[in-house]
Amino acid sequence: MRIFENFESEVRGYIRSFPTIFTKAKGAILTDEQDVEYIDFFAGAGTLNYGHNNENVSKALIEYLQNDGIVHGLDMATTAKKEFIETFQNSILKPRNLEYKMQFTGPTGTNCVETALKLARLVKGRSNVIAFTNGYHGLSQGSLAVTGNNEYRDESYISRTNATFMPFDGYFGDFNTLEYLRKFLNDGSSGVDLPAAIIVETIQGEGGINVSSAKWLQELESICNEYDILLIIDDIQVGNGRSGEFFSFEFAGIKPDIVTLSKSIGGGLPMALLLFKPDLDQWKPGEHTGTFRGNNLAFVASKVTIDNYWQNDDLSNAVKYKEKILRSRLEEIAEKNNDICDIEVRGRGLAYGFEIKNDPSIASELSSYCFNEQLIVETCGSRGQVVKFLPPLVISEDLLVEGLNRFEEAFEKLLQDKEDKLTKEY
Questions:
Q1: CATH of domain 2-53+313-425
Q2: Phi then psi for 177, rounded to 5 degrees?
Q3: What does the domain layout of the chain look like in residue ranges?
Q4: CATH number of the domain located at residue range(s) 56-309 in this protein
Q5: Would you give the DSSP letter of residue 235?
Q6: Closest CA to 200 of 224, 184, 176, 180
Q7: Model pLDDT for residues 167-226, shown as the tens digit of each residue
Q8: pLDDT tens-digit readout, 226-237
Q9: Between the CA of residue 66 and those of 59, 187, 295, what are the distances in Å?
C-alpha cells in the first residue's frame, strides 16, 4: 500500500477502510492480489446494482469496441445514444406513464444535481432552494449548498446562501415535518424566500438510510404544486432498482418535475442523466455543456441492463424478496444484542441501515471487523453511526446469507473484544 501513501493525495477515503489491493471482481465478489475473496455489500456506493463485470454488459462493450464504435462524441448524435434513448423511453418511461425530456450532463451525480438546480432557478426566476436535514447531493459547490452534513460543508468555504434546510420525514419523531415547512412558506415574515425548487432523496443514503413515507412524499408534491415550486427527486444512489422499483418514488405514485440519475444508470460506467418535464426545457442551445456529457460506452452498457433486467418485474420481485431476508436477519441480530446496544434497522429494497445509537463509534469499528471477515460494508449517517448495506441487486440468495453470517460474526467478535477490554480495565 506504500505507493498509494507516497503518491496519492491524503483525500483518499475508501482505501483507508479497505486496506488491500483489489485486482479483479465478478458479481458480488471482489478479489485482492493475495486471491482473498470478499463479499461486496457496498457495490461502488450503489454504482454496481448489476454486479461487477456483468457478463451481458462486458460482452456488449467488447463487441462495440471491436466494431470501432464511437467512444467520445460530446453531444453529437451517435447510434449508441439513439438506441439508449429509445430503450429508456420505451422500457422505463412509457410503462410508468412518465413524460420527461432527457439531458446528459457531466458524468457524475453532482454534475447532474448542479444542472437540476441551475435549470430550476432559470425556469422559476428565483434563487432559493429548499433541501432537507441529513440530505446529501454531492460535493461540488452548488451541490454542497444543499447538502446538510457539516463534515463536508465546514471546510469548503462556500457561500451558503440560496439554500434553506427543512426537517426530513421523521426528523422530529412522529411530528409531521411538512406542517413545519408549510408554516414557513405561508408566513411572509419567516425569512424563507419562496424557492425555485425543493430537492429531496426518498431514501437518504449518506444521511443514514432515512426512509420517507409515501404519504410524506405525496404531501410534499402537493405543497410544491400549491406554491408553484419544482420538485426535484435525487435518485442518484437509490434509483435504478435499488428501492425495488426502477425509480424510488414510484411507490408513492408521485411524478416529480425533475429527476437526477447517475451511479448505476451507466451500467457501472460514468454517466449522469437529468429528466425533466417537457415544459421545463427552456435551455438555449449550448447554454449548459460539458466535455464528457456523452459517454457512449455507458449508453451501450445501460441499454443492455435495461434490456436484460427491466422488460418485466423479475428483478423488482427479486429485490423485494431479498429485502425480506436482509431485514429479517438484521432485526434478529439487533434483537439478539439489544441488551448491549441500542440498535435500529431501517431501509427499503436493498438499501438498509444498521444504526448503533448508544455508541456511534461502533459502526466504524464494525466495518473494520467485517473487512477482517472478508465482507465489504461502509458507514453513513451524520456521525458515521450507521452501517450501510448496498449489495448488488443481482446477488445470489446464498451469497447474501453468507454475507449476513459474516456480518453477525464480525459484530459478535467486536462486542466480545470490547467486553474483554472492559474486564481487563476493571
A1: 3.90.1150.10
A2: -70, -20
A3: 2-53+313-425, 56-309
A4: 3.40.640.10
A5: -
A6: 224
A7: 999 999 999 999 999 999 999 999 999 999 999 999 999 999 999 999 999 999 999 999
A8: 999 999 999 999
A9: 11, 62, 17
